[in-house]
Amino acid sequence: MTDPLLFHPHRYDPAHLDETSRRLLRATIDWFESRGKRALVDSYNHHEWYADFLDFAAKEGLFATFLTPAADAGGDPDKRWDTARNAALSEILGFYGLGYWYTWQVTVLGLGPVWQSGNAAARARAAALLDEGHVMAFGLSERPHGADIYSTDLLLTPDADGGFRATGGKYYIGNGNVAGLVSVFGRRTDVEGPDGYVFFAADSRHPAYRLVRNVVNAQMYVSEFRLEDYPVRAEDVLHTGPAAFDAALNTVNVGKFNLCTASIGICEHALYEAVTHAHQRILYGRRVTDFPHVRRELTDAYARLVAMKLFSDRAVDYFRSAGPDDRRYLLFNPMTKMKVTTEGEKVIDLLWDVIAAKGFEADTYFDKAAKDIRGLPKLEGTVHVNLALILKFMPNYLFRPAAHPPVPTRRDPADDEFLFAQGPARGLGAIRFHDWRTAYDAHAHVPNVARFREQADGLVALLAAHAPDEAQQRDLDFLLTVGQLFALVVYGQLVLEQAELTNLDADLLDEIFDLLVRDFSGYATDLHGKAATTEAQAAWALAHLRRPVTDADRTARVWQRVVDLSGTYEMHP
């Protein structure tokens, strides 16, 4: 039996999308399935560059269709930047392997500064390159500084022709070996401070662009490159001054969302493989899935994965409905990056505890999933960086709700043009949110939603009565635990909103919140043990430990959904 909540390659038909999008997504699935599992695992194990996939994408016009905004589409009605269908493709690519997703992801990032630019020539050039089947790259990070863009050492010296000569290196740049266009961040030698920042378009095929090496031991190519007196023409300049800085941050805002859907796709494929293996294996005269601890771990993995999908699907709606007066997506975005991807790690860990040594075998997908799932929480800013960002929203979110019109489900074929007109990357603390309690109130009849709501209300009480003092506010170790507690409240809100919109089975929703109650208690225990925690805060932590409401019949019904996955999907050999 097929689970309608999970991606299944043989039965996938996104009826909510237009015909061209459906055809291209189906063609992508069919390409992987006809290529087969042996080719998938062998190319991964041998670190073979995925030129065959890029050839397929070029032939189908896949990236050109999905990543060209309508304004640059030359009248093609199928081209647009549509977060809903981009999320669908991202999940599919993650399902088959991180490398295929990664070349897509860094193309998204490379295009960000271009589509935010008013440089018509550069935009036309990018659109033409996409039509030709090229991929792009995002030249931001440097080896000494990582993504600390304040400290860039790539220098642009003005020349006599109104342009610059660029010299310096970039590090950890995906697609840097083949990108038709590389959006490169640097600073002018003749201008101090933020006014000296420059984003410009480079070409990896230019003689002054020197590819140094691949810096990772993987199928994907993550380059180190150097520019040696590279000629930057006036028509290559995308942004200057503070606008270049904003373009960098706003590009990451757009790109980091894809991390959640990649994590979901990886977990879905691994789940099919793990459940099938466990259910068909006999140990000590019993099916592995007859052991109670195995049932709990697989049920938890499944519930966590469904919650990941619910949150991410709902976050799409906030992205697509965003505008200058509604920037709530700027909270839900780091949540997808930080929370969903770390949940993905938990899913894989639970599955791996069940299948044990099987998870190391070279001819499995799981072996790849177990390695690759670790990367997603560490891309586009670490978990800690994104948690610190999430904390900026906490006061307004918890204490100062504002009226907002309801955000509908957004699967319409519209161009998400605001994502490239986000404006200055500041003012996060002023963003207002609708009342988070509304979603919880609507599901108060679900036992574990009600129990988690007690914990969420407790967090509000803690911050009102025993808010972090000045020293604690400088102690990031302490604050990150508070951030994890806050993130659970936000996570639960969007899970509940999507559950309402999709009429999610009440048993499954209760099982998801069983997990959230346990997670909250875990972080409260962590807070209790922090050296910086006061006696009052420690007492609060103990007082808000909760056991979830258990229901053996409910858990058995959810378990049946899990065990029914056994044998339902195996990639073509």
From TrEMBL:
Please give the InterPro entries that the UniProt record associates with this protein: Acyl-CoA_Oxase/DH_mid-dom_sf, AcylCo_DH-like_C, AcylCo_DH/oxidase_C, AcylCoA_DH/oxidase_NM_dom_sf
A single MF term (Gene Ontology)? acyl-CoA dehydrogenase activity
| Keyword terms, alphabetized | FAD, Flavoprotein
One cellular component term (GO) for this entry is: plasma membrane
Domain of life, per lineage? Bacteria
One Pfam match, by short name?
Answer: Acyl-CoA_dh_1
- Residues of the signal sequence? none
Ranges for the Acyl-CoA dehydrogenase/oxidase C-terminal domain? 245-392
Q: To which protein family does this belong?
A: Belongs to the acyl-CoA dehydrogenase family.
**What is this protein's record name?**
Acyl-CoA dehydrogenase
Q: Which organism is it from?
A: Micromonospora chaiyaphumensis
